[in-house]
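User: I'm new to structure prediction. If I give you an amino acid sequence, what do you actually give back? Let's try with this one:
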Amino acid sequence: MLLESARKIGAKILISGGGRCNVTHERVVPEDFNGARNPIRNVLAAFDADAAARWFAALGVELKREDTGKLFPVSDRAQTVVDALLARCRALGVEVRTSCRVEGIAGACDEGFAMAHAGGVVRARRVVLATGGRSLPRTGSDGSGYALAEALGHTVTATQPALVPLVLEHGFFHAELRGVSQPTELTTFAGDARVDRRSGSLLWTHFGVSGPVALDASRHWLAARASGAAVRLVASFFPGESGEQVDARLRELAAERPRASVGRALAALLPERLATALLGLARVDAVTTLGQLTRDGRRTLVATLTQLELPVAASRGWDHAEVTMGGVPLAEVDYRTMASRRAPGLFLVGEILDCDGRIGGFNFQWAWATGFLAGRAAVRALASRPA
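Assistant: Good question. You get back a string of structure tokens that encode the predicted 3D arrangement of the chain. For your 387 residues, that looks like this:
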């Protein structure tokens, strides 16, 4: 029996990947996740991305690989995934009850569990908590699962939004660049220590920044801020290149085309609106020729291009976060079965656990893998009971 708090099944699946559902990634390794590394490694080894792809194929959902390595249904419709999962439930005789929010769970393995909800009480010998975390509460994952886990003896580490757009301080130039995207390298510093560096597509919005690289970086920025450190997020619009290399590139351009304007030269390397905004921030006149650009002016421009501190004010919060950072510690479950070490007969899977992956289908892979282990173990445990 599946007890679902929402009116419809699969809300998070339906909105993921722009409505196409990024089911998994062609290559999934423990380093793609934040959390206790050994349990994560063992879970992924037990049900990897190839196993997930074979499983979906068996359900009639063929997957295709995109250039980023992400795997989507060939139909490009998330509804295809939901329909296949529900069809499998019907074939196996799984009773699906929607609008059935569980308010409390009592009991233990030998006596069974009693799950109270608005329509009454459901009793079961094995229970799997797959409630999600706190991200996108409108889909049903509003954090209520943590209270259920705590009532059964589990602890919950501090939770924060992850894979969430970042809000920049009012007055920065982001609103002027709304809709512009380009490859960017983002580095997160806690005090003087670098805690994260990654590259990818950055999208400027009316409120700040989004896009894959900003979403991935958000997790580390928020974690560093929660630690009490002075946090900085620094952008380079020439990923993989040092300031010295960018400076050398500008000097070479000046030697080759001394009469070309700095504005035109930079617009050939970056989106024009971004180039204009960066020149304004560096106080370099766009009509200045490369030959007239002073050494100090060039150095200021290079610093703006490769070491621009983004004035992050906050994240957009739970309503816009794709996943939750924190949750039930992995040490409190048996990673071979996802069985609770605190409440015999209970299993915990997916986002309720203290494990979060980067953007690209990794969090779905975690859900499929932990769900597979828990489901298999729960059935085997029932089958092994004495008559």
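You can read the tokens as a compact description of the fold. Here is one thing that stands out. The two ends are 22 Å apart (CA to CA).
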